[in-house]
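From the methods appendix. Each design record in this collection lists the tokenized structure first, followed by the designed amino acid sequence. Records were kept in a plain field format so they could be parsed without special tools. The example shown here is representative of the layout used throughout.

RECORD:
FOLD TOKENS (152 positions):
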């Protein structure tokens, strides 16, 4: 069922198609209930897709065996490639966590509320990233804080 989703390509492809799907389904004239329903379905799809991608890439993230008879360059290639796979996996794991947390909020009837300020998250934002836990304002604030932390 989700085989089309499992690919070595990064997740943008999946997300891109979901966003397009979202744009088609979620029109401005739809009642909020229906918009939320489509978002819940997209959360389910996203969780399945990320889970599949993570299990597909787990082997590629395994430590490079330095004892193997690689040539000098190809060993460096292998390590570099592995680092890219690992970095991508970290992003996906975070996203998967957020997706699971968002589905929990659906179950508790709290979905769509910012977990920082309790205000409603903008629908446009939910449509772009249904798993987001923050409204625009809180997200901006968080990113600004992370940047200043990195600078110090
Ligand atoms: Zn907020």
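DESIGN:
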């Amino acid at each position: 069922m989700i085989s089309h989703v499992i690919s070595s390509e990064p997740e943008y492809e999946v997300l891109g198609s979901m966003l397009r799907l979202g744009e088609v389904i979620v029109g401005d004239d739809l009642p909020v209930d229906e918009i939320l329903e489509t978002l819940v379905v997209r959360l389910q799809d996203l969780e399945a897709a990320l889970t599949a991608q993570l299990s597909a890439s787990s082997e590629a993230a395994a430590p490079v065996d330095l004892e193997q008879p690689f040539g000098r360059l190809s060993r460096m290639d292998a390590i570099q490639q592995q680092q890219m796979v690992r970095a991508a996996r970290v992003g996906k794991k975070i996203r998967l966590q957020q997706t699971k947390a968002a589905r929990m909020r659906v179950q508790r009837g709290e979905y769509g509320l910012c977990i920082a300020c309790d205000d409603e998250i903008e629908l446009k934002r939910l449509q772009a990233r249904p798993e987001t836990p923050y409204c625009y304002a809180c997200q901006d604030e968080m990113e600004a804080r992370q940047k200043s932390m990195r600078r110090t």
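APPENDIX NOTE: Confidence is low (pLDDT under 50) at residues 1-27.
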